[in-house]
Amino acid sequence: MKRLWLPGGFVALIVLAALCAPLFPLPDPIRQDVANRLAGPMAGSWLGRDEFGRDVFSRLVWGARTSLGVAFASALVAGIIGVTLGLIGGWGKGAAAFLSVRSMDVVLCFPPILLALLVVTLLGPGAATLILVLSVLYLPGFARVTHAEVLSVKGRDYVEAARALGARPSYLLLRTVLPNIAGPILVQLSLAVAAAVVLESGLSFLGLGVVPPAPSWGLMIRGARATMEQAPLLLVWPCAALTLTILAMNLLCDGLRDALDPRTAGR
Amino acid sequence: MSAAWLARKLATVVALAWLVATIVFLALHMVPGDPAELLLSTGGVSPDPASVAELREKLGLDRPILVQYAAFLGGLLRGDLGTSLVDDYPVLSEIALRLPRTLELIAAGTAIAILVGVPAGVYAALDRGGRFDRVASGVTALLLAVPVFVVGTLLVLLFAQTLRIMPAGGFVAFSQDPAQHLKLLTLPAIAIAKGLAAVLFRMTRAAMLDALANDYVRTARAKGLSPNRVIFVHVLRNALNPVVTVLGLHMGTLLGGTVLVEYVFNWPGMSTPLLRAVEGRDYPMVVGIVLTISVLFLLINLLVEMIHAWLDPRVAHS
Predict the structure, then answer these.
(1) Which of A6, A230, B113, B129 could bridge across to B193 with cysteines, CB 3.0–4.6 Å?
(2) B153 with A225: CB under 8 angstroms?
(3) Residues of A with CB below 8 A from B91's CB?
(4) Closest approach of A23 to chain B, Cα-based (Å)
């Protein structure tokens, strides 16, 4: 459990900053101030200003809100639908149960970013498109994990006991099976959030994700690339924020997996 | 690797390719509303009805859906991917021009990743708990966390902008100037290699540690084989199987990463027309490129499975 504290604390800090962004006395992240284009650190702007004179620190904090908002929303949507499909697939019998899990595997035939670009072509860029695409991409993971876990759990004695006591299938699935397989699903959720942050930033970097002038780390890196010569630090801040966030999330995933997996929990 | 095994694998690839094509075809029809109107709309402004009708005709949307589907699959079989909506240029010609450049980048990136990741993993496993092992494991965690476009951008910032020892990007044909061609290839190939190298390092290290614990290793040592022979002939060969599997699993990420890396370094591969087409809502071009890369993905996975079967004959018999 000790390995969870540091990355967990860091992720919590970023999530908290993202949630509380409107409460901080930060300058407006999209207000332009052309007189202070690419200005260095100054009073009220610790990290300076970007190519449109917008406050960099404020954009970093608000960017966390965009990135994490999109990532958590899509992971949750994928989780809810994927777990439902996995429960049906693992519990039920016949073609419907089989299809509910295996049909998801079709998504895995595509390299993720390409499927995303295909959908962006059709629906146009934006946060809503991103959430849709990312949740479709992470569906198979949830469906597969849930399916496998239900299969391993459904023959256990405590499930039999609950059934013998007369529990209905819905009660069995939601109150008996689901709590017992929550661990792997939670790990899957943390993996999906981390992966979604990476993909969201990548698409925004290409100019096909979050629509400017909304602040997003990927968009900030895209913008700072053009002014790399005059203001290299502008490039470093969003890169560092993104990398540290993903690093902390990855370590948190590893820690969670170790803590929740009975085979490695004792180590 | 028997012929029957290979035939079965090939049949699976064909079936998956058909599935991919069908999904791409259906994607256009699954969106709510008129796809032609959707592709032409920008920022809530309704497009002019005449151009919508023209696009409907061009995409064949005015015909019954089964006829469209048959025409689409028929076109694919004949190698006809349609023409760009923007400049009427055949999609296939664009792909034929650019695919080799993308493949070169992928091949170079994979080669670097294998040359760095596998030996480092072997060495870390032999040095378990030592300084190299700990440093390399830390670096790996960092490499896995940095998105590929961040690595690319930072490489440009460091080597092109600050140290000025490498070009920031671009492309020169190999036949024109081999040295400059390789120089321009270096940074993007490194950027692509970083994730795969990290994954290969982790997998090689874990698989080596597993293989080292086997009885046959003790036997090989006991009968007096040199340490090098034990490691390279007995342990490494068995450790390579899971490594090859991971190589296959990581190819999707690698192909996606190529899109970003080509953009960062202005490498004129498949990603330039792809991104331009996505931005210009040029649907046939996007479909052509997505299909090509997805089929490429399936073929690379087949190749990986073949290597796997060659390394471990049990695979082809199970």
Answers:
(1) B113
(2) yes
(3) none
(4) 30
Q: How far apart are CA B103 and CA B282, in angstroms?
A: 23
Q: What is the ipTM of this complex?
A: 0.84
Residue B23: list chain A partners with CB under 8 A. 106, 109
What tens digit of pLDDT does each residue of B233-267 get?
Answer: 888 888 888 788 888 878 878 888 899 999 999 99
Cα separation, B222 vs B235, in Å, equals 15
Which among B38, B144, B153 is the top mutation candidate for probing chain A, defined by the most A β-carbons within 10 Å of its own β-carbon?
B153
| Cβ–Cβ under 8 Å, residues A67 and A19 | no
* Spatial separation of the C-alpha atoms in residues A49 and A66, rounded to whole Å: 19
Could you tell me if A172 lies within 8 Å of chain B, comparing CB atoms?
no
Tokens of A159: 């499930």
**Chain-chain contact of A250 with B23 (C-beta, under 8 angstroms):** no
Q: Helical H runs in chain B? A: 3-30, 35-40, 49-58, 65-77, 91-126, 131-145, 148-155, 178-212, 215-222, 227-229, 236-264, 271-279, 283-311, 314-317
pLDDT digits (tens, 9 = 90+) for B144-178: 899 999 999 999 989 888 888 888 888 888 888 88
Give pTM, 2 decimals. Answer: 0.86
